[in-house]
Write a structure and sequence with these properties.
Blueprint (H helix, E strand, L loop, with lengths): L1 H12 L5 H4 L11 E2 L4 E5 L9 E5 L2 E3 L4 E5 L6 E5 L6 E8 L6 E9 L4 E7 L5 E7 L11 E4 L8 E7 L3 E6 L2 E7 L16 E9 L7 H7 L10 E12 L5 E4 L9 E4 L4 H7 L6 H8 L1 H14 L2 H15 L3 H5 L1 H25 L7
Antiparallel strand pairs: 1-17, 2-16, 3-6, 4-5, 5-16, 6-15, 7-12, 7-16, 8-9, 8-15, 9-10, 10-11, 12-13, 13-14, 17-18
The protein binds 2-acetamido-2-deoxy-beta-D-glucopyranose (NAG) (6 copies).
Length: 364
């Protein structure tokens, strides 16, 4: 139970973190409904994820052109991203470069409120392998659930790790090859009893399983204690496609059985779907287009006269924003940062093309 281990680390670090995990087990009591994904969507992990859909529970993500980097480098650090949405059977396709290093575990996990779990796990001591695993209702007493699969250069190349999950079977695919199937009814699942079958969140994590104080079994599994001198340890996720086999707004456990038959699906548009369908916030260059030709000429003149494009563009931009009553929007921290980057790109492009086209000397 990987997330039990992780959880105990997190519990030490912060008591606030454990809440969603143990908050409410629907096989023991009545719990709030789970927000559904209710659709299919691919997230590129190269720019900020929508925090109404994804929640960075621990650590930070660094977005690069390659994808999102999940990094830890010091004792006590760890990373965990989880979806706010749940899927009730479906497909999760993740393109991953595992983290290297003994004791380090990269993982992409589906997990439900009653601890059904479907795992991809990469142990950092072996960069040619990935492990598959599953649990039903957090039950760890059956053996032979784990699988190990060969995959070349898993730390330096992205590979496509796909989980297919429905009420009859569970499949793990690597780069288009089916590497493992678990049927609903077989000894490993205790003939269905321990088959994952309730709505699951998606969790992505890079974490130190090999740490002082962990169970010896866990440390051995992870390939020893993490050697922090060899850090930082980075797992990279390029993109993720998630398909929910149900469409709807939320999932409710109608009783304490934890069986898939007990899950009620409420129709309607999910929060995630609504967020996905929202138009992206306007970029600086789109706003620039909106300013119109008059303003453009004004800025060109101002820039040409003063030779200080950056200042002119910003002043006029912010004056416009103020006039439209949107200064607040522009100054919003998160958006401001991306718009700054956007503005810089824009200015570079502008300098390279417009200044040349117009025969102006670039003043640096
Ligand atoms: C992210 O990757 C996608 C697909 O390759 C690309 O279309 C998009 O422009 C990239 N976005 C950023 C911010 O790099
Ligand atoms: C990594 O795992 C693969 C697949 O199980 C195995 O063939 C290989 O020997 C392992 N390598 C190391 C270094 O443990
Ligand atoms: C776990 O599964 C085994 C095998 O079916 C069963 O005997 C045991 O009671 C289960 N444990 C729990 C806590 O449900
Ligand atoms: C990833 O693998 C799955 C399962 O084989 C496949 O359906 C999907 O098309 C693959 N994705 C890409 C981008 O090739
Ligand atoms: C799963 O079921 C299929 C038939 O639906 C069968 O071919 C396969 O051998 C079964 N796999 C296991 C691991 O029981
Ligand atoms: C769901 O959203 C679509 C637009 O994306 C809208 O046409 C439809 O009425 C919505 N359905 C509900 C039940 O709100």
């Amino acid at each position: 139970m990987i997330f039990f281990f992780l959880l105990s680390i997190l519990a030490l670090a912060s008591s606030a973190i454990a809440q969603t995990f143990t908050d409410c087990n629907p096989t023991k009591k009545s719990c709030p409904a789970d927000a559904a994904l209710g659709t299919e969507h691919t997230w590129q992990f190269n720019s900020t994820l929508n925090d109404k859909i994804w929640n960075m529970k621990t650590g930070d993500i660094k977005y690069t052109n390659d994808g999102a980097e999940f990094t830890f480098s010091k004792e006590g650090e760890s990373t965990l991203l989880q979806s706010n949405f749940y899927i009730f059977f479906g497909v999760v396709e993740t393109h991953v470069k595992m983290a290297r290093g003994g004791g380090v575990i990269s993982s992409v996990v589906l997990e439900s409120d009653d601890l059904d779990e479907i795992d991809w796990e990469w142990a950092g001591y072996n960069t040619s392998a990935v492990q598959s695993n599953f649990f039903g209702k957090g039950n760890t007493t059956t053996y032979g659930r784990g699988g190990t699969h060969v995959v070349a250069n898993a730390d330096i190349e992205f590979h496509n790790y796909t989980t297919y999950w429905d009420k009859d079977r569970l499949e793990w695919w690597i780069d288009g090859d089916l590497v493992r199937t678990v049927n609903y009814s077989e000894p490993n699942t205790v003939f269905g009893q321990n088959y994952p079958q309730t709505p699951c969140r998606v969790k992505v994590s890079n974490w130190p399983a090999g740490r002082k104080g962990a169970k010896q079994g866990t440390i051995d599994w992870a390939g020893g204690l993490v050697d922090y001198d060899k850090g930082p340890f980075t797992m990279t996720v390029q993109k993720m496609r998630v398909k929910d086999f149900h469409s709807g707004q939320e999932y409710t456990y109608s009783d304490h059985s934890g069986s898939w038959q007990s899950i009620d699906v409420k129709g309607g548009n999910s929060t995630a779907l609504t967020e996905i369908n929202k138009p992206p916030p306007k970029s600086m260059s789109e706003k620039w287009e909106e300013l119109g030709e008059g303003a453009h000429i004004g800025i060109y003149c101002g820039a040409a006269a003063g030779g200080i494009l950056g200042i002119a563009a910003f002043v006029i931009f912010f004056l416009r924003q103020r006039r439209k009553g949107r200064l607040e929007y522009a100054l919003d921290d998160a958006r401001h940062a991306t718009e700054r980057a956007d503005a810089e790109n824009y200015q570079n492009d502008w300098k390279q093309t417009e200044w040349k086209n117009r025969g102006y000397q670039q003043v640096s």
